[in-house]
Write a structure and sequence with these properties.
mainly alpha; 76% helix; 11 helices; 279 residues
């Protein structure tokens, strides 16, 4: 049952990136990020009421995490508007876990083991291979790839901040932390909402649905860890970049080079090593 929950979480989290990545070509990235957080808020509070216990200080951590979540989502969809799935998604994912590790080193004084450092060493060439296709020199990377790399790294920074801050929420209040994070992110994005853009009604609905799917995926991931070793859930969920890369590249007719695929695989290996070795 726990493995099924982890697999479901992986598919749901991947679906969020896929849906919003496709939308990013037709709808302002900031609006997508806003509706995604709105949908996550609704589902997040429903899950919190069912599975979590309120903690007085959780609103502080949730509000701070929302800043990182809003920044990460906005930059991620900016990147997917300008660059291929195969660059932005894996770069943002591996940057997220690597930068979150850095936060733990600086602010929590944690001392990672050799496997974590191996993951970091793999992450660096993984990002290069994913973004440049393994081509040397400044001319080897296209303009779109450069933008995708920068936005992916920026998104990773935002999500790393979100991950680090949510880690301070007690386990029994974790779902309230997620819900408040989504609410805070929506409030941060709302003042910058692009009201001048006349979109089809289904675009906001799709983005809101994607946000709800994401919150449900996070809930299932947390529940899956209760019935088995956390390592198993982490490994399964860490595979999520493969789904938006494969399906997104097909839908948007984006070609993924052989070296780019090597970079994607190495990115996932680096994520697994860094996340698993911290438990």
């Amino acid at each position: 049952m726990s493995i099924a929950l982890a697999l479901s979480a992986m598919v749901l989290l991947a679906s969020t990136h896929f849906i919003n990545g496709v939308l990013a070509r037709f709808y302002p990235p900031l609006n997508i990020a806003f509706y995604t957080h709105l949908g996550g808020t609704l589902v997040g509070f429903a899950c919190a009421l069912l599975f979590s216990t309120w903690e007085p200080n959780v609103w502080i951590w949730g509000a701070l995490a929302g800043l990182g979540s809003a920044l990460g989502a906005w930059l991620l969809y900016q990147g997917l508007f300008r660059a291929p799935f195969a660059i932005v998604v894996p770069v943002s994912a591996v940057a997220m876990v690597t930068i979150a590790l850095g936060f733990s080193l600086i602010f929590l004084g944690e001392r990672p083991n050799a496997w974590v450092w191996l993951g970091v060493m793999i992450a660096l060439p993984a990002i290069w291979l994913t973004a440049s296709g393994g081509k040397l020199g400044k001319m080897g990377m296209s303009s779109g790839a450069k933008k995708g790399l920068l936005f992916g790294l920026g998104a990773g920074l935002g999500f790393a901040l979100q991950l680090h801050v949510l880690g301070q929420v007690p386990d029994h209040a974790a779902f309230y932390g997620i819900a408040l994070c989504m609410l805070s992110g929506a409030l941060c994005l709302f003042p910058f909402y692009n009201r001048a853009h006349h979109a089809r009604k289904r675009f906001p609905l799709l983005a809101t649905t994607a946000g709800g799917i994401s919150a449900l995926g996070l809930t299932l991931y947390a529940l899956s860890r209760e019935g088995q070793l956390a390592v198993i859930s982490i490994v399964i969920v860490s595979m999520y970049p493969l789904i938006p890369v494969v399906f997104g590249s097909v839908v948007r007719r984006e070609r993924v080079s052989g070296t780019g695929m090597v970079g994607i695989v190495l990115s996932i290996v680096a994520m697994v090593l860094i996340t698993v070795s911290t438990f």
